[in-house]
Amino acid sequence: MSGRSTRSSLGKLVSQETVPDNIVTRTMKIWNACFPNTNYPGFAVFLEKNMKNNYGITNFTKRTVKISTYLHETLGSEAMDATIAHELIHVYLWYIDSPNPWDHDEIFMDLAVALGKDDSLSKSAH
C-alpha cells in the first residue's frame, strides 16, 4: 500500500502545493466541465505557454487576443466562442494568485459556462 494517493485525489485537487503543471490539468478539467461535447484544443496549451514567456502576465489581454485570432484563423469561425472561452480559462489560471487557486475554479466555471452558452457575447464584443 502506497502512502501517496495523488491520482485518486486529482479530481478533488487537494494538493498542498501549487505546481505549474497542474495548470494544464485544471484547464482540461474546467474545459470538460464547461464544454463536455467539445474536444479540448490541447495544442493551445503550448501556444499559451509560449505567449506567457514572450509577453508576461501583465499583457494577458494582448496575449489572449493574439492566440484567439490565431486559433480563429486555424479552426474556423464556428470554433471562435469555444476558443475565446478556452483562452480565458488559461488567462484566469495563470493570473490567480492564491495559496489555493483552485478554490476559485467553481466561480470561474459558472462564468465560462455562461460564455459558452451566449453566442452573442463574443460577437457583440468585437
TrEMBL record:
It comes from the Eukaryota. InterPro entries: SprT-like_domain. It holds the Pfam family SprT-like. The lineage of its organism: Eukaryota, Metazoa, Ecdysozoa, Arthropoda, Hexapoda. It comes from Trichogramma kaykai. This is SprT-like domain-containing protein. One of its GO terms (biological process) is DNA damage response. Residues 32-115 form the SprT-like domain.
